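Handover notes (outgoing to incoming on-call)

Open items:
1. TauD/TfdA family dioxygenase: sequence verified, structure written out, both below. Nothing else pending on this one.
2. Nothing else urgent.
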Amino acid sequence: MSSTSLQPLSAVTPHPGRPPVLHVESPDDAPSWAAEHRAALREQVAEHGVLLVRGLGLREVDQVGAVFAGLADDLMAEREAFAPRESHGPGLYSSTAWPANQPMCMHHELSYAAECPGLMLFACLQAPAEGGATAVADAERVLQALPAALSERFEREGWLLTRSYNDEIGASVEESFGTDDRAAIERYCRAHAIDFDWRPDGSLHTRQLRAAVVRHPLTGRRCWFNQIAFLNEWTLAREVREYLVDVYGADGLPFNTRFADGSPIGEDVIQLLNSTYEDHTGREPWQDGDLMLVDNIRTAHSREPFTGERRVLVAMAEPRRLADHCPAGKVGRS
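TauD/TfdA family dioxygenase structure tokens:
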């Protein structure tokens, strides 16, 4: 059996506080290796929810794109982005533009969209000097650890995402929807259960009600699947929140989350959610050339603060329209 075979996969086991890591000897052709061993790698993701592959020696954008294409079909074009990314070709993106000194807290990619990726792919071309890990958390265990009264309310009612688009903070309308044509944006919103309102100054305000707990499409297990904490005002650094409230007003923040009835979610709830994530977080510092596969429904991910240059490429794959993810009850007007 060759040195690049998947014989070591039989020994892959998760370690407390870190994701499972598979060490391989650098193959001559990483894209061919990934395509050849796709099924075995995906079996590990199905078992553990995440797999970090170390030793592939990924160095070039085109190489990463070919590896991603070998691992998954249907790479997705991102829509409804909350922050801009740089595109490197169809379905291949830079990591989200976010201040290096600020964490991106645990979330499931596009959990607020009617169609979300079932699989996330990450590749590290350059690891930062310190920090910057893409940490992970098991959504089943997070759900089990939350107080029943809180999780049951969110499961029963869902959660509300509000967005106020502007030209300064977060993704612009065109970056989020792929167009600045009003009619096209309105068609998209109606097709994806998003209520919208054009303000007198021409800016767009949206609200969308989504499920907070979903059943995994393959296992049927209940998962805490949302961005209630990450996109809430209380997760922001205090000085950032105070600045945004001062500039845009409490009801005009670029993004915020609320209970389904529109009432505010208290700081104590957000702190509880984030601390529960932290209790179930696994992290492994990036090394140059690493590859990570993440089951986006079972596993939340984050990006920790860092120093130095960090270059991570991302793809979203296997689009899913989860049953009951968009509750029937609508909010606002469209």
